[in-house]
Structures are given as structure tokens and as C-alpha cells.
Amino acid sequence: MTEVRxxxxxxxxxxxxxxxxxxxxxxxxxxxxxxSRVPEATAEDVDRAVRAAHRAGTEGPWxxxxxSERGKCxxxxxxxxVEKSEELGRTESIDTGKMLKETRWQAAYIAEFFQFxxxxxxxxxxxxxxxxKSDMFVFTKREPLGVVAAVVPWxxxxxxxAVKIGPALxxxxxxxxxxxxxxxxxxxxxGKLIEEAGFPSGVVNIVSGHxxxxxxxxxxxxxxxxxxxxxxxxAARQVLENSKNNFAEVSLELGGKSPFIVFDDANIESxxxxxxxxxxxxxxxxxxxxxxxxxxxDIADEFLVRMTAMAKAIRIGDPLADETQMxxxxxxxxxxxxxxxxxxxxxxxxxxxxxGKQPEGMEASLFYEPTIIxxxxxNMRIVDTELFGPVLCVQRFRTEDEVLALANDSEHGxxxxxxxxxxxxxxxxxxxxxxxxxxxxxxxxVSPIAEFGGVKGSGYGRESGFQxxxxxTRSKTIWINTSDAPIANPFVMR
Length: 494
Hints:
Elements: E1 5-6, E2 9-11, E3 14-16, E4 23-28, E5 33-39, H1 43-58, H2 61-64, H3 67-83, H4 85-96, H5 100-120, E6 128-129, E7 136-144, E8 147-151, H6 157-170, E9 174-179, H7 185-196, E10 204-208, H8 211-220, E11 224-230, H9 233-243, E12 249-253, E13 259-262, H10 268-280, E14 292-296, H11 300-313, H12 332-347, E15 351-354, E16 371-374, E17 391-397, H13 400-408, E18 415-419, H14 423-432, E19 437-440, E20 459-460, H15 467-471, E21 473-481
Parallel strand pairs: 1-5, 8-9, 8-11, 9-10, 11-12, 13-14, 13-18, 14-17, 16-17, 18-19
Antiparallel strand pairs: 2-3, 4-5, 6-7, 7-21, 12-20, 15-16
């Protein structure tokens, strides 16, 4: 029997158990067996973490570091991520079921994000103002916000941590990171790299636990200045309610139901490959999954023949094996949600072209077949319900105006894909689609240089890019009287 691993939390530079000794099990979704035990943070543990972060940002060596020195810590962290990518990726794959080939690549690639923000650390500056008073010198400077509460889900967690804490730390803030209760292992292992990179005690704290009390106490804490949240809409509403107590700034990156639009002049091979990657990569467990496929009527049949054949050939199995192409979904609740929505779609007239069930012989696990459903109506519930699994809804269109209306008929607005060889059309569509990210003739591409975020029910605020540095700072205006003359009239505002 494989030994069950027991984790500890990182608080104020120390590895600690929950104050009451509480633990919860983490399940390997590939085997269905407990593989690790994780601390269930109490309200007292969260309070200690936030207060440690506050002290580190106001009194400790971090508060006295120059931007260049902060950049050196981030650069060291990036180097360690490359070195430890195999180990981190393996932990994440065991904990989530994501493919090792993807998780180890992602662990290495996010080093680029920390390198980017290491370079940004000393690039934030204020400005002098051409004020309308000759005896005044006025300038601005940008200062860190304070304690940042970073809340991440289990999927793409290393990437989501990088886009949150990279700019936060570069700007001089401190962080309390809440790991997902569904898969905390990789985040807690990441904490060891924080230590090794030379960040002072309390600058980054990592707590684990469920929404209550851990998430609730963290997002409502009076010393938290900003909340960066990625997750579902219901949890986001609770975060907003909690933030009323501390007036913290909030950014939300929520779910998606992204349209993937293929016109009749598209490169079919390229579009099929991109659609396969967009919906079946990570078993569809991505907020930007291209889960709504809109095909021009003239190429729809050919496209679906090719895509269905590829979907049927996807190798499902152990995510640690190199030959595997798709692993399990992460949680039992997720699997049941997928099953229920697929059944409901069929009751509304949806036709399953492939998949629609668990693989034979794997019913006791959390695997689900790559599934394509031909949907006769935009009004079907599944068309705008995020399943977070390997399920694709397909519809047909004839005109640009028709597909634009269908694409925008959604409460979500995170991402969109457009495949066409017509450059004018690609620009028109990219501008008209209501989404925060639009990929043209490609899909699911990220970079530390490019901003990431949604509109409508997919949240607000942006991550990545240089702009994020400004989001983690506030401007202070400083007035200096350059005249030796006394103030003339204290009762008159100048």
C-alpha cells in the first residue's frame, strides 16, 4: 500500500499543522484512493497568516527591500521552478488527474511569468505634475496595497498562482495564498521554493482548507487590502459579500462557456486540432475550454467526421503515463454534474455523436469519455452551462450575423476562438464578440506579456501583462511648497 503523505501549511516562515490538528483527505482521482492528508486551517490559523503578512509588509526586511532586490527573489523563484518542474508537475497530476506532460510543462513555463515580473519590479514609477500653482512641486509615487489574499482553484493552479502573486510581490505586497481544498499538494510544495528563493518570513503564507472557515475568514479579514479570486460564481458572490467588511479591492476570474467559431474558409485540419485541444485538453477542466462549437453549415459535416474520429481515438488512462492523452476529472461531484447535464441535454433533443458515458471497465473511477453533442437549439440548458469536463456542444450557422448573435447569447464572456482565412472578418468578429480574450486561428495560448480576464458573468479585472503591476499598487500624491513666503490666508483654499 502506498504511504499517505501528510502536508503542513506555511505561516510566518514556519511549517505548521492546523492549530486544532484538523486534517482532511485528498483523493487521487485516477485511483480513487487517499494519497495525502492536508491541514484544515482554523480561523485562528488564517488570522495568524494575515497578521504575519501584514508585519512582513510594514516592519520586516521585505518592507525595506528595493524593487531590484524584490526582483532578485522572483528571479530565483523562477530558476527553482524550472529545476523542480518534474516534481511539482507529478504532485499536481496525482492530486488532480491532469496529464503529467502538461503539468510539468506548465510548472516550467510559469517560470517565465516570474521572470517577467522580476523585470517589472523596478519599472513602476510615478510622475511629476505640471500643476497650476507656481510655488508648488507636485509628484506621485506608487505604493503597494498591503496584504493580498490570493484564492486559486485546483485546475491550472501553478499558472494562476503565478499571475496573482508575481505582480503582487514585484510591487512590494505580501500574500496569503489559499490552496484549493480539492488539490492542495502542489501549492504546499510550491511553498518550499518560496523559502529557498530567499523571500523573508511572512511575505508569502500558504493556508489550506475549505470555504468556511478558511476562505471566509481570509477574504473578510480587516488587514486584507486586495482579493484576487479565481473560481465559480457562487463562491465569488460570497467573496464580494465578505469584502464588504474590509473594503478590499476585488478581482474575479470566473467560469466560461467559450464559443469556438469555424467559418467555411477555415483551415479545417488546423481548426479540428485546435478544437480538440480546446475542449479535451485537461479533460475539459479549463475555464477557457472551447465548449461551444459553431460550424458553418457548408463545412459542418466534414468537420464533425474528422473531429469525432479523433475524439474516439483519444487514449484515456493514467495521467502519469506518457502515452495517455486524457486523464480523469478531478472530483466525484464534478463527474455527477457532467452525467446529469449530458442526460438532460439528450432529453431536450441533443444527439450524442461520441462519448456520453464513462469508459467501459472504468466506471469505478472518475474517467469520462470525450463527448460531442449535436445541439438543435441555442435554448438547451447545456449550451450555456459550464460543465468543466470533456463535453462539447455543437451548432451550425450560415451567416456572420447569425453566429455573432449565438456567440454573444451567453451569461459568460471569458474567451472565444475564431477560425477564418478572411482577415477583415477576423477583425470584425474579434471586435464584436463579447469576450475578454479572443484567439484567431489558434486557441488556448497564454503569455506573461498578455492580459487575461473576462467580461459579464466571467468576472472582472485582468491578470498578466504589465498593467497588473498597477493593479497591485495605489498612487500617492505629494505636494511640496517651494516658496519661503508664509501662507497668506488660512481660511481660503488655494
